[in-house]
């Protein structure tokens, strides 16, 4: 038994390559993430960050190990129970993945529509979620009429409709300029602090970690190379890369 909200227990994932070879993208990672934390995952390109994130909601099924979220072993669930459990795990992506021909409110309504919820309840929840991300006035707009930051906030609203306990964020601001990045980080901070949503954020931007995260894990060649709390000034980085990252994290934030 673990008290962690998210518990990865010796999780591994390999991908088949042409020619019958296999590539180990995530190798024997064990990781606990506390409820309510804003947890960063950093590392070089190809280190396995996105794969690790996708293992948390079983978008990738591990070859070995268990994925336990809120006390439930997702790897042991039937397809229908997994679908239900996934309502508790939201996800957003670098490229927003909005429906371009649908209005903002239709995009946000989408997860509730496919769940077959009553129309009045959907309308109410969509309004609440657009309010949380500060886009109540854009309900009738189309994505093309929004800035990148606003599009990402629509994606956040859509992810919140099912009241997830955790939001998985894969490079949520990497497609954005600094100004709109700020608005997205503010929104993520609000849902973490005021709405108690646990965040797991894959990013290559140290600024994102500095502004948002309380803990960070370092992925290196599929391994979990290091992990530390940002306020742990005594932490001794476990690898050379971790040392570089810690040094850059401790540089003063840009204005
Ligand atoms: N579906 C797949 N099939 C084959 N290989 C894959 C697949 N998905 C990921 N990989 C490989 O696994 C490794 C880890 O990929 P992953 O996307 O998790 O890295 P990442 O740390 O998120 O990198 P980036 O910072 O570039 O997004 C990479 O070498 C990638 O090419
Ligand atoms: Mg990635």
Automatic annotation (TrEMBL):
Belongs to the ABC transporter superfamily. Residues 6-246 form the ABC transporter domain. GO terms for cellular component: plasma membrane. Keywords: Amino-acid transport, ATP-binding, Cell membrane, Membrane, Nucleotide-binding, Translocase, Transport. Gene3D superfamilies: P-loop containing nucleotide triphosphate hydrolases. It comes from Derxia gummosa DSM 723. Transmembrane segments: none annotated. GO terms for biological process: amino acid transport. InterPro entries: AAA+_ATPase, ABC_transporter-like_ATP-bd, ABC_transporter-like_CS, MetN_ABC_transporter-like, P-loop_NTPase. GO terms for molecular function: ATP binding; ATP hydrolysis activity. This is Cell division ATP-binding protein FtsE. Part of the ABC transporter FtsEX involved in cellular division. Important for assembly or stability of the septal ring.
């Amino acid at each position: 038994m673990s008290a962690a909200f998210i518990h990865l227990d010796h999780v591994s994932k390999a991908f088949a390559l042409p020619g019958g070879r296999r590539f180990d993208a995530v190798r024997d990672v064990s990781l606990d993430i506390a409820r309510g934390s804003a947890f960063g995952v950093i590392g070089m390109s190809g280190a396995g960050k996105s794969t690790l994130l996708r293992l948390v909601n079983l978008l990738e099924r591990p070859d070995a190990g268990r994925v336990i979220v809120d006390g439930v072993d997702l790897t042991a669930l039937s397809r229908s129970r997994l679908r239900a459990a996934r309502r508790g795990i939201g996800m957003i992506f670098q490229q927003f993945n909005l429906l371009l021909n649908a209005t903002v409110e239709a995009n946000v309504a989408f997860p509730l529509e496919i769940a077959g919820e009553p129309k009045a309840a959907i309308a109410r929840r969509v309004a609440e979620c657009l309010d949380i991300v500060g886009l109540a006035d854009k309900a009738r707009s189309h994505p093309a009429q929004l800035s990148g930051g606003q599009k990402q906030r629509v994606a956040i609203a859509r992810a919140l409709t099912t009241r997830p306990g955790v939001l998985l964020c894969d490079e949520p601001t990497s497609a954005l300029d600094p100004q709109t990045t700020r608005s997205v980080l503010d929104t993520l901070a609000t849902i973490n602090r005021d709405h108690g949503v646990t965040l797991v954020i894959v990013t290559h931007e140290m600024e994102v970690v500095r502004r948002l995260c309380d803990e960070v894990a370092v992925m290196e060649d599929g391994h979990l190379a290091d992990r530390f709390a940002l306020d742990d000034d005594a932490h001794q980085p476990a690898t050379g890369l971790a040392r570089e990252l810690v040094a850059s994290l401790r540089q003063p934030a840009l204005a």
